[in-house]
Write a structure and sequence with these properties.
Number of strands: 6
Helix content: 40-55%
Strand order of the largest sheet: 2-1-6-5-4-3
Structural class: alpha+beta
Shape: globular
Number of helices: 4
Strand content: 35-45%
CATH topology: Nuclear Transport Factor 2, Chain: A
CATH architecture: Roll
Length: 143
């Protein structure tokens, strides 16, 4: 009986630790998205891109099709949002954040831009991966 109790305690401890770790990972991802909101709203596109994996393997899929690479994604943002009037104020609404595997989460939600040139709204699904100890967006589908 004592062995069963010890086993139950170990299993409960392991489950609680896994839950806490997942909760902490989600909080870290949300913090990155909050920093992105702030950078975008300050027309700091380079700061916004800090949330993305700085790699030629980054993938962005939007209304203009597939873009590959961090630099090309930044260049597209600069072209499409040339001024503060175009970036406006960004707000994310996260509708779901789920673990997709070890060190990988997908985040689904909505974005809202309040801006002088006309407001814009849409949906997104982004994939975060832990790379070299940091959470980075490795794929983004926004429309």
């Amino acid at each position: 009986m004592k062995k069963l109790i010890v086993l139950c305690l170990i299993m409960t401890s392991f489950f609680c630790q896994a839950q806490q770790t997942e909760s902490e990972e989600k909080k870290a991802i949300i913090a990155i998205m909050k920093a992105q909101e702030k950078a975008w709203s300050n027309h700091d596109l380079e700061g916004f891109m800090k949330g993305y994996w700085k790699s030629d393997e980054l993938k962005f899929y939007g209304s203009n099709g597939l873009t590959k690479g961090w630099q090309q994604t930044l260049d597209n943002y600069k072209k499409g949002y040339p001024s503060k009037a175009h970036t406006g104020i960004l707000k994310f609404k996260v509708n779901d954040i789920s673990k997709a595997g070890e060190g990988v989460y997908w985040v689904m939600g909505e974005y809202h831009l309040t801006r002088k040139v006309g407001n814009a709204d849409g949906v997104f699904m982004i994939i975060f991966k832990k790379i070299d100890g940091e959470w980075k967006i490795v794929a983004d589908t926004s429309c």
